[in-house]
């Protein structure tokens, strides 16, 4: 008969967390008592204790930025040990979505430059240590006629603010899929936000004919209603920076990206590769500043090709192209 084998219980996975926060001795976050009893089974990734004084239950993440986390302890250990904990590295290391990775990376900003042990200790400290001092979406300073006490952004979620910012960059409307790509949210999250904004009376959904090649096809577009309450929210809402202020000569300026709401994104376009598409979109478009930039910046060979395209061979675009081509040929 084989000898009986002793069953060895696996070591708890959050022991490193307990050591970093309490030096191995669980302490009630509510009353500070060290008289606690572990409750529940020992197979849990996150252990629970009951305080012997106030009788409240708690875990090592209670009262911290990790409170109610859905990640396992080993995932947090992996994150704090990353040399460069940016969203792509976090998503690749623990297999989360880019939205979750971005939120985790925001929590790590105040502890950047510290060792992994120091990062873990700071994350398990008081919540106030890593909480942002103010809303990053709020304009600074607030415009003079407005008052910070009347800030309408206070009760809006970060996803709602990101969607509003994306809509502002598309004044003639955009699809829900395009807004999801611009705001960094999932498609389902974006549709929920748009439905809520519609209930508030800030956006509307209409089906419009959109040029697709040489045909028109109906597309469902979301756009602002431009009501008084909507305009007030936009007055407080800050633009999210998309690129540095120094723009390479081969790139379309960021202020004109909103004109490329369909097809390729404006930030991906390069004059050397997509010059004709840029010329056709901006010169035949409704933005006078973008049209002036295209006429004065794009190569003369691109302007000659653009002059022969449908939509640029008559009317105002044709007249402006002829004048610019004549000016450049005379100067040469």
How is the topology of this model organized?
Layout: H1 15-22, E1 36-39, E2 48-51, E3 57-58, H2 73-80, H3 87-94, H4 98-108, H5 116-123, H6 158-168, H7 176-183, H8 187-200, E4 203-212, E5 215-224, H9 228-236, H10 271-283, H11 288-297, H12 300-307, H13 315-331
Antiparallel strand pairs: 1-2, 2-3, 4-5
Helix pairs in contact: 3-4, 6-7, 7-8, 10-11, 10-12, 12-13
Low-confidence stretches: 1-11, 127-133, 241-247
Basic shape: elongated
**Run of helices and strands:** HEEEHHHHHHHEEHHHHH
Biggest pleated sheet = 3 strands, antiparallel
Strands in their spatial order, largest beta sheet:
1-2-3
Q: Given the helix and strand composition, which structural class is it?
A: mainly alpha
- Terminal CA distance: 102 Å
Number of strands: 5
How many structural domains does the protein architecture include? 3
Task: Give the radius of gyration.
Answer: 28 Å
Helix count from the secondary structure assignment: 13
- Overall pLDDT confidence: 80
Percent of residues in beta strands: 5-15%
Binned, the helix content reads 40-55%
Please characterize this protein's 3D structure:
- The chain is mainly alpha-helical and 332 residues long.
- The chain folds into 3 domains: 15-129, no CATH class; 152-236, Arc Repressor Mutant, subunit A (Orthogonal Bundle); 266-331, no CATH class.
- The protein has helices at residues 15-22, 73-80, 87-94, 98-108, 116-123, 158-168, 176-183, 187-200, 228-236, 271-283, 288-297, 300-307, 315-331; strands spanning 36-39, 48-51, 57-58, 203-212, 215-224.
- The strands form 2 sheets. It has a 3-stranded antiparallel sheet with strand order 1-2-3, with no helix packed on it. A two-stranded antiparallel ribbon has the order 4-5.
- The protein is elongated.
- The N and C termini lie far apart (102 Å).
């Amino acid at each position: 008969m084989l000898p009986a084998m002793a069953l060895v219980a696996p070591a708890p996975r959050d022991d490193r967390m307990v050591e970093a926060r309490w030096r191995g001795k669980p302490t009630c976050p509510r009353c500070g008592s060290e008289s606690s009893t572990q409750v529940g089974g020992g197979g849990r990734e996150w252990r629970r204790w009951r305080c012997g004084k106030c009788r409240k239950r708690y875990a090592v993440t209670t009262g911290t930025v990790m409170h109610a986390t859905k990640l396992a302890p080993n995932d947090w250990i992996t994150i704090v040990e990353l040399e460069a904990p940016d969203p792509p590295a976090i998503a690749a290391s623990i297999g989360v979505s880019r939205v979750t990775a971005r939120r985790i990376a925001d929590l790590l900003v105040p502890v950047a430059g510290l060792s992994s042990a120091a990062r873990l200790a700071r994350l398990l400290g008081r919540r106030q240590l890593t909480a942002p001092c103010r809303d990053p979406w709020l304009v600074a300073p607030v415009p003079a006629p407005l008052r910070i006490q009347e800030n309408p952004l206070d009760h809006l979620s970060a996803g709602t603010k990101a969607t509003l910012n994306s809509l502002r960059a598309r004044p003639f409307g955009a699809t829900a899929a395009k807004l999801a790509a611009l705001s960094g949210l999932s498609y389902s999250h974006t549709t929920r936000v748009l439905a809520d904004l519609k209930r508030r009376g800030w956006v509307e959904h209409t089906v419009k004919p959109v040029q697709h090649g040489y045909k028109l096809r109906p597309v469902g577009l979301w756009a602002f209603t431009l009501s008084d309450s909507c305009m007030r929210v936009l007055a407080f809402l800050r633009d999210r920076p998309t690129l540095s202020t120094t723009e390479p000569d081969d790139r379309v300026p960021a202020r004109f990206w909103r004109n490329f709401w369909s097809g390729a994104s404006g930030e991906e376009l390069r004059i050397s590769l997509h010059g004709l598409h840029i010329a056709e979109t901006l010169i035949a478009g409704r933005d006078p500043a973008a049209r002036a930039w295209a006429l004065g910046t794009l190569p003369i060979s691109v302007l000659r090709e653009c002059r022969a395209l449908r939509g640029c061979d008559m009317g105002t675009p044709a007249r402006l192209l002829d004048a610019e081509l004549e000016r450049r040929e005379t100067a040469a």
